[in-house]
Amino acid sequence: MRKNVETTLPGGDSTPVEWATMGGNTLYTASIPIRPDGSIDDGDIESQTRLTMENLKSILASAGGTMDDVTQVQVYLTSKEYFSGMNEVYRTFFNQPYPNRATVIADLMVPGAKIEIVVHAYIEKK
Question: Which spans in the chain are helix H?
């Protein structure tokens, strides 16, 4: 059964989505460069990646996990030009061995967002 994970991210009352859900020990989540006030970071790809990764780190903590629990990542960028900058920031959030990852170029739904990241993590129940 799917369970919602309460997070500190601003709510999206008008959209039929949750920031994170658990199915058994598996966390399913996605984040964008959203600030606590609900606005989108309009900075460069490094800034947007850092905020998105910090949001994911916070979500993982809310679910009782850490970045070391992440098993798979899907990164969506709006341009190939952003790959290098994203990668430089991304690598600072994980220890080796790194999670499995795919990177896709896509037209994102949130105006101003250059990045969206989907994460799956296995979190052991304590």
Answer: 45-62, 83-90
